[in-house]
Specification:
The protein folds into two domains: 31 residues, no CATH class; 152 residues, Ferritin, core subunit, four-helix bundle (Ferritin, Up-down Bundle), CATH 1.20.1260. 77% of the residues lie in helices and 0% in strands.
Length: 198
C-alpha cells in the first residue's frame, strides 16, 4: 500500500504543468515539487542497502560534476585546489561504494528517491554553469556548503538507520567523515571570500 502511495505521488509530480524553465529539472519538475515528493518518503518506504548505496553515489557524482564545472572556470588558486580535492575524493568514494556493494551483496538500486536526488543535483548544477568569475565562486561555495550540509543530514537521519549491512554502515561512517571535512573547508573558503568583499 505504501509503495502504491509513493507511485501515485511521483506520478502526480510528473503531471504538474511546467513552471519557469529555470526552476525546472530535466523532467519538468520544479524545486517545490521535488521537495514535496521527497517529503513523502519515510523510513518505512526505504529500499534498504541498495538504495543507501545509490543515494551516496548520487551525492558523490553531483560533487564530481560540480567540481568539473568549477575547474572549467577561472578560479582563485584556493578554490581550484578545493575543486580538485572534491573531484578526487568523491571519485574515490564512489569506488569505495562499489566495494561496499560487493562486500554486502547489495547492488546499488536506482529508486524514485535516488532519481529525485539526481534531478536535484542537475538542477543546482544548471544554475551554476552560466556564472563566471567571483560570482561563480561565491555561488559554487554556497552550493558546496548547502550540499554537504544536506549530505550529513541524509546520512545521520536516514541512511544509517536504513542500512542493514556492516560493510555499508562502515562506508557511511567514512563517507560522513569526508563530507564533514569538505563542509569545514567550504565554510572556511566562503568566510575568506566574504571578508574580501567587505
Amino acid at each position: 500500500m505504501r509503495h502504491a502511495v509513493i507511485a501515485l505521488v511521483l506520478a502526480a509530480c510528473s503531471l504538474v504543468p511546467l513552471v519557469a524553465c529555470s526552476d525546472n529539472d530535466d523532467n519538468g519538475r520544479s524545486s517545490a515539487e521535488i521537495k514535496r515528493a521527497e517529503a513523502s518518503y519515510t523510513p518505512s518506504t526505504r529500499a534498504g542497502d541498495g538504495e543507501v548505496l545509490a543515494l551516496v553515489m548520487a551525492v558523490d557524482q553531483h560533487e564530481i560534476d560540480a567540481a568539473n564545472t568549477a575547474l572549467n572556470k577561472r578560479l582563485t588558486p584556493a578554490v581550484a585546489d578545493f575543486a580538485r580535492m572534491l573531484r578526487e575524493e568523491h571519485s574515490a568514494n564512489k569506488a569505495k561504494g562499489m566495494k561496499a556493494s560487493s562486500a554486502s551483496g547489495a547492488s546499488p538500486m536506482t529508486t524514485g528517491r535516488v532519481k529525485m536526488q539526481q534531478e536535484k543535483g542537475a538542477q543546482e548544477l544548471a544554475s551554476l554553469k552560466p556564472l563566471e568569475g567571483a560570482q561563480f565562486e561565491q555561488q559554487f561555495l554556497a552550493a558546496m556548503v548547502k550540499g554537504h550540509t544536506e549530505a550529513l543530514s541524509l546520512i545521520d537521519n536516514d541512511l544509517m538507520a536504513a542500512s542493514h549491512s556492516s560493510a555499508v554502515r562502515e562506508h557511511l561512517r567514512k563517507t560522513r567523515a569526508a563530507v564533514a571535512k569538505h563542509l569545514d573547508m567550504a565554510k572556511q573558503l566562503q568566510s575568506g571570500m566574504l571578508m574580501m568583499t567587505r
